[in-house]
Amino acid sequence: MKTKLVFVFFVAFAFGCKAQDVDFNQYLNNFGCVELPILSSDTETWKMIFNQGNDNIHGRTYKSISEKYVKKYICPDGNFNSNMKHYVRYDYGVRIDISNDFYTTLLSKLQYEGNSEWDYDLTEDLLVTYTKSGKILSCKSLTKDNGDRWQSTLTITKGKIIAQQIKVTAAEVSLEKTMPCELWTTEYQVSGTGLIEVKNVSPKENRKIKWNDKLLKYELVN
What we know:
about 220 residues; 6-stranded antiparallel beta sheet; alpha+beta; 5-stranded mixed beta sheet; globular; single chain
């Protein structure tokens, strides 16, 4: 009887090890961990989220995701670069505790060049959910930022994700002048099966915006 139990345990252990994806475990281990809620007003938390690396000169800094992992866990359809003329970098962010049934990660995509001001040096915050074995369940680009034409804020709680997006619509960008912009808010929710769903999108508002040198970001003007 004891021999049979040992054999069953050995078979179960061997099967379990075979089922695990070593690459996926290593990929996940490069992400940081953060407790919910993540509030857009908490600037220190946001600085930490996309600075999972460290070097002797800059201290805490970004940690880029290797091409091997990008192709396997971010762009498995082969679309490694959404625009092959421009260089794209993906950086590790954090794992988010939304459910015990699947993994949820927040990572960054940076496109260095573009065809216009709207996609030059463009950063996107990507939310990706995975099965326990590493298969992508869902992937969404939540926000865009590039310092000139886009600015965003993101708030993540257990029940929902709120992304506020600002798009500068002025013919020319000027950091000294008040400029017109469009503002809208998108509410996302991660379902019990790991799908990232758009629950609500507010109508776009025409507003005005001005650069704040002290805060190094745009501020809405009444």
